[in-house]
Amino acid sequence: MGQGGLAIRPPTRRLLPLSAVAFIGAASAVTNPALDGAKLTEQTSTYRMTVELPDGTVDMTASTSWSRANRDGQDVWLVHLVNDSSLGRMVEDIYLRRDDLRPLHRTVEQAGVRLAMDYTDGAVQGQASFPDGQDVPIDIPLSAPAIGHMESALAVLPLSPGFTVELTTFEPTMQMERRWRVVVTRTETTATPAGTFDTYRLEINDPESKGAPGLYWVTRSPPHHMVQSRTTLPDTFGGGEVNVMLDGVETPTP
């Protein structure tokens, strides 16, 4: 979902990951598979989030919207994310190519800080602008083409028990590439404020991290949208647990 709403700071200082809803098995993993953007549908998912930090708990509301759009004459999916909490509002826009969900452009805004990034197969380039007038260039090489949005990728993958995949992402506020191993462990029935869903339970793990894998529950019927997640923040950010629960779903009126 790329959610978090935690403070964005210059890359030379301590950063907190935006993807607080972010990111094993013996099966062979497919690495950075082709994604079919035609499998996505327009909708808005709203979530209740609780971030349990060592010095207290922060409650948040979040939403993720998928809509068809046009950017510079190209058909795209616009993924629009909003987080609200006592820490303020975070707004993120991610532009993905309509056909294969390859990322094109991404902006993140919070507390007067703005990140603007363009994606190529080999790099993420752009600028971070801060309220004091400081502009910091972003130029991060990628070892492999990155997906633009974890939840969008999961939504269109051919999930089934035992399915395993490896995905590369770029974390804006950490200014780094990350690799994730995703395993579908089993099917479950998951109750949320938005209703009860037949789901796949996924384990999502950064192989370079020593922490426990994150847990995602996504709808068994495609597109496989997230209905619940449970993840931990890295020790480098003070630790803590993030719990997310689907609160509602809206789809456009025909």
Characterization of the model:
It is a single chain. By secondary structure, the chain is mainly β. Helices cover 3% and strands 55% of the residues. It is built from one helix and 15 strands. The chain has one helix spanning 150-156, and strands at 30-31, 43-53, 56-71, 74-85, 88-97, 103-110, 113-119, 123-129, 135-141, 164-171, 176-192, 195-205, 214-219, 226-232, 241-250. The chain has a 15-stranded mixed beta sheet, covered by helices on one side. The chain is globular and about 50 Å long. The chain starts with 29 loop residues before the first strand and ends with a strand.
Short note summarizing the structure:
By secondary structure, this protein is mostly beta strands.
